[in-house]
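Hello again, I could really use a second opinion on something today. I owe you a coffee for this, so here goes:
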Amino acid sequence: MININFEPFPNLETNRLLLRRLENSDVKEVFALRSNPSTMKFIPRPLLKNDEEALEHIAMINAKIDNNEGINWAITIKGNPNLIGIIGHFRIQPQNYRAEIGYMILPEYHGQGIVAEAIKEVVRYGFEEMNLHSIEAIIDPNNLASGRVLQKNGFVKEAHILENEFFDGRFIDTVIYSLLKRDFKK
């Protein structure tokens, strides 16, 4: 079983990005992400209604970090501290050396390779620092852009599960992508 410890919090860097811990001062950007029907189109969770719910979301993320249950980073462009997205490992299964990766980014930053760059670094952290054996991503089958960015990072489609989640009065499908440590290319 792997031993998870996110203390001290690991800031991550890429060529263009700084991935840092979420702070209460990110409330407006978190609200913009999680209240936008376009951004949340493929994420089966209720839309946030106000800043208070955004602060609760930030607190939940940070509590999981403090309890070593999951880790999320604010995606920022170097030289600009404003959050433009969130990425992280959650649903960590220490006994299976496996975690799920999730991410979202503000619409104005789509198509710039930012998510692919962030995924690469978060996957590296998962394999090299957390000692994961495999990382999965569970996405909506209609989210073609997410499927492409995962494949670009070496993930392979493992399964298409029919109507396995119930959200907003209907059953929805999910697709599982995964990457094994031995197939990870730095």
